[in-house]
Structure formats: structure tokens, C-alpha cells
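Batch manifest, entry 17 of 40.
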Amino acid sequence: MASDYLQNLFGLSGQVAVVVGGTGTLGGALAEGIAQAGAQVVVAGNSAQRGAERVERIQKLGGQATFSPADVGHRGSLETLLTATLAKFGRVDMLVNCAGVNSASPYLEVTDDDWQRVLDINLRGTHWGCQIFGAHMAASGGGAILNIASVTADVPLSRVFAYSASKAAVVNLTQNIARELAPRHVRCNALCPGFFPAEQNRQILDAARTASIMSQTPMARFGEPQELVGATLLLLSKKAGSFITGAAYYIDGGFTAMRF
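Output type: C-alpha cells
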């Protein structure tokens, strides 16, 4: 009885989810969780090898997944991703925008090229995904979009200026898309992870900074990628998340509570 209730509330059976950046550490964990909740998952990213590995892992866990190439640096690549997904599955119910890059340097040393690269991937790539897939969802009766922002969207942290600016913009973009598409039954929310072992933050986590982050986090540890899955299922679920849109959920071990 309890399992039926939870499946009815949080389950994603019969739905199709596209996880852009699903070849990465965090995106891969989300893809695995979404698949185990019953959805058919399209793992999308730049690396066919990592995509195949993630698909194999999902299948071993009992889920359904395929890989599709995607480069968020090119709008046409995301348009092709949508077309290919519709050709294969006939629908897209959920989109997770999880592709991202970082660049760590003192503010006065940030180069124009690094600044633009981070904004292009983290913000423009997210915008393209929302616009392309959001248009399909709006025309098809609805859906759910989940954008991955960051705790740095709200909390100042040195040496990640372009990254922080891009993620703050992702939160703002999410809120505006939520307002725009709510009448067409498309929900749009954001997850703001704290510090997780992922590609985007490895370059800034030397021993001193690791100790500093630990001292500012009440739970005194980094997050594990699978700890993002629960909130993800809530925000994607048609029932459990039915009245949630425009929200930014911080999954950070209490880091934002200690910001000042």
C-alpha cells in the first residue's frame, strides 16, 4: 500500500525525460534517479563514451535509457536533440538542464574568453534548452523543466565570478520562464546544489578552500550526487510537484544558513 502511494505521488512511469549534461557526475546521478522512478531517460551530452557508460549503469539498475549527443554551445544541436527524441519516443515530458562549466581565478585576472565561455554554456545553453523544449511542452499539453543553478547564485564565493553570475541569472531566468509558461501547464524550477564532487568545482577545491567550505557548512561535509535525486523527483513529478513552479531549492547541507 505504501509503495503504491509513493509511486502514484512521485513516480514517473510512462514519461520521457531528457537530461542535458547527463554524462557528467551530477547529471548522471539525476538521470539514474529519474530512470529508477520509471521514466524513459535520454542521457544527452558531448561524450558518447561516458553516455554509453551511464546508459549501461542505468540499465543495470533496472531503468530505461538511451544516449543522444548534445552540445549546449550550439542551438542547432539542442534542436536536433528534440527532433531525435520525438522521432524515437513521440514526446518529451521533462527536461533537466545540467550542463555547466566553471573558471576559477581572482576577479582582476578573469579573461574575456573565460567569462564568455562560462556565460555561454551555463546561461545561454540553459536558455536554449528551456526555449526549445519548453515550446514543445507548451504545445503538447505541459511538462516540467528543471534547471541546475548553484549555491553561489546567492552566496558570494571568491574566484568563481563568471560562474556565480551565470547561476544567479539561471535562477532569475527560471522564475521568468515559470511565470511565462505556467498558463500553458509547463512548470520550471531550479536546484541550487552546494558543494558536490563534480567537474565544475574540482579546480577550486584545494586543501585550504576545502577546509573553509567545511567550516561554513553545518553538516561539515560535501554532498553526494544522489542526494539531489529526492528534490529532483519532487520538482519533476506531475502530482507531488504539481503546484511548485518558479522555485529555487537549495541542497547545500545548510551552507546558505551560514552565509553571514
